[in-house]
Amino acid sequence: MPYISNSFGTFYSLNKVNKDYPIIFVHGVGLNNEIWKPQINFFKEYSTLAYDLLGHGKTPLKKSKVTFNDFSKQLLNLINELKFTKIHLVGFSLGALIVRHFASKHDDRLCSLIIHGSIYKRSEEQKRVVINRFNVAKLNRPTSKRSSIMRWLTEDYISKNPKVYDELYSMLESNNNNNFLKSYELFTHYNDDDDDMIKKINVNTLITTGEHDVRSTPEMGRNLNKVIKNSRFEEIKKGKHLCSIECADDVN
After folding, report:
1. What is the DSSP pairing of strand 11-15 with strand 48-51?
2. Are 21 and 84 a contacting pair, CB within 8 Å?
3. What is the pLDDT at residue 64?
């Protein structure tokens, strides 16, 4: 698939196979569009698009601070330029918060919504842990990258798939650290689970979380399911945070 930039600087990979509404994938913090390979390959008979968020992969970030409005505007500019009137939207981790924000403002542009590995109403202890992770990440040491991957995938999967580990580590290593920290701060300091905003999501919604995800927990997914009226929740058995890779068949 071609890997190109739109007029706003967003790099994306588009597999356009028909005139149906495309499936658009939004990745998590520190990653890029390549994490969606198992999904792009599985849905190869559908039009699919995966793109790099602001300050990730090959998409630049020129602002000193980034907001969810910036990320929603990026997605809106992209689908408008490509003349997609409606889309199926999938978001993971930070991407899950982005698609939630986008759906609350542009529900009319969606055919369906998939919220994968999303936080929701962190406890005070959970907030303390992630803010500590942010402070460690500011040191930009290998330990922080290794611990991230260990949170995302099971030890058994990593031992059997060292190439996946290396690819993820390389992805994290290639980040512009200043840009990464802008997005990571937005994610780790997120404390804005506005139920009134979330209740504006009316499109059919699937909420998924890995059974062993310790930061975007199944409990969070179930509670989010209670707020979004046209939604259902599915727990991905044996999966951790990046179960879209480790448990790709079940996620797909």
Report:
1. antiparallel
2. yes
3. 95
